[in-house]
Design goal:
single chain, 394 residues, alpha/beta, TIM Barrel, nine-stranded parallel beta sheet, 19 helices, binds flavin mononucleotide
């Protein structure tokens, strides 16, 4: 079947996350289809410079879609030609964004509740588009009102070239577990290609959810932010276990791409540092989850939602790269920016990173000691009250 995508694994549109340098990195790991951050159609229509910049694609992006957010068919009259002129391969209509700012204006997931408006927008896309358009849906607006069959059929009737289904309602936002049965419902309802989305962190979860849903592909969001090499894992059906040094090399490449994109002057460095600090929040969540050990757990609960322990022993690089906290993220971002901008050798960076480990371990030990002291105090209190003695001396 013809699909608007070039591959069965697609990097998700993510505000801030799927910036051009990050998409470029994912392409190196085998992402063949990528989507822009979401862009307001009204801002494109006004030729807002910041929004126009989001249309840029890197030459390594083989199949690139631009995602738009709108509540008005009229905004599409200007926005669609601008996107087509930019050279995008497809347009993706956002019907899933759960944030209040979008929903209160009748955009994103609100369209799942206002299907008449959704239909008007689809009609206009059908009339205007010379390139394929796809629709990214959630299972519905809220629990008890899931209408994926209705919205999927409507999109098909208006010649959408494909659908992405994220198995959560707007109300759920990113909580709970993605319901891949909603993906299956869409697959069973329409004959256009359907890609499933939600909670994929490992190649074996991707394989499993594909089987369960019958979807023709998977879209990966947070899984890629945690490990950009997930595309290679899914392609090769193999768990990758990059060493801390190998991960540093990957993160350094991302930093270089940031500086190339945003500029290496003071402003470019600041912008790149803010993006890198944001990325480190997710990159530091990486843990090795080999199939032999984790497959059973993945059937019980998506691994992306499983709380995994920090690392407080062994190679200091491993300790730091699995660390938590805003301060650490900012420190890492600054080090990587300096390393990339000043073209320092990687071992300079490794030494600086290692030097952060003792503080992380000491912090952890302090927290453990505090927890133990609290537990002890609580136990003492309980034994006092159960002994019948007054809790406080009169
Ligand atoms: C930081 C972040 C930003 C996101 N921005 C968008 C967006 O701009 N457009 C969109 O359709 N979905 C957006 N999403 C939702 C993802 O595309 C995806 O549907 C969701 O994260 C579930 O997939 P996952 O479990 O693989 O992350 C965003 C998600 C995250 C985590």
């Amino acid at each position: 079947m013809d699909t608007p995508w070039k591959s069965s694994v697609i990097l998700a549109p993510m505000s801030k996350g799927s910036n051009l340098p990050f998409r470029r990195l994912c392409c190196e790991f085998g992402a063949e289809t990528t989507v822009s951050e979401m862009i307001f159609a009204s801002a494109l229509a006004k030729r807002n410079r910041k929004d126009l910049a989001l249309l840029r694609r890197h030459p390594s992006e083989k199949c690139f879609g631009v995602q738009i957010l709108t509540n008005s068919p009229d905004d599409l009259n200007d926005a669609v030609p601008i996107i087509e002129e930019s050279g995008a391969d497809f347009i993706d209509l956002n019907c899933g964004c759960p944030i209040d700012e979008a929903v209160s204006k009748g955009m994103g997931a609100n369209l799942l509740d206002r299907t008449r408006r959704l239909e008007n927008i689809l009609e206009r896309l059908e009339a205007l588009c010379h390139i394929p358009f796809t629709v990214k849906l959630r299972s519905g607006y809220k629990e008890g009102h899931t209408n994926i069959a209705e919205t999927a059929k409507m999109a098909e009737n208006h010649r959408a070239a494909g659908l992405v289904v994220h198995g959560r309602t707007r109300e759920q936002r990113y909580t709970g577990v993605a319901d891949w049965n909603a993906v299956r419902t869409a697959v069973e309802t329409v004959s256009i290609p359907v890609v499933g989305n939600g909670d994929i962190l490992t190649w074996y979860e991707a394989e499993d959810r594909l089987k369960l849903s019958g979807a023709c592909g998977v879209m990966i969001g947070r899984g890629a932010l945690i490990k950009p090499w997930i595309f290679q894992e899914i392609r090769d059906k193999k768990d990758l276990n990059p060493s801390a040094r190998e991960r540093i090399a990957v993160y350094l490449r991302l930093t270089e791409y940031m500086l190339e994109h945003f500029g290496s002057d003071a402003h470019g460095r600041r912008t790149s540092a803010s993006f890198m600090a944001w990325h480190f929040d997710l990159l530091t969540r990486w843990r090795f989850l080999p199939r032999e050990e984790w497959y059973g757990a993945s059937l019980e609960h998506p691994l992306i939602q499983t709380r995994l322990n920090g690392v407080y022993e062994g190679d200091p690089l491993d300790i730091v790269l699995a660390g938590y906290g805003k301060r650490l993220r900012l420190q890492l971002a600054d080090l990587f920016i300096e390393g990339a901008a000043e073209k320092r050798p990687q071992n300079w960076l490794e030494e600086k990173i290692s030097a952060l480990a003792p503080e992380i371990v000491a912090d952890h030990e302090r927290r453990l000691a505090e927890k133990a002291a609290k537990k002890e105090a609580k136990a003492a209190q309980e034994s006092l009250s159960s002994s019948g003695l007054p809790f406080c001396e009169p």
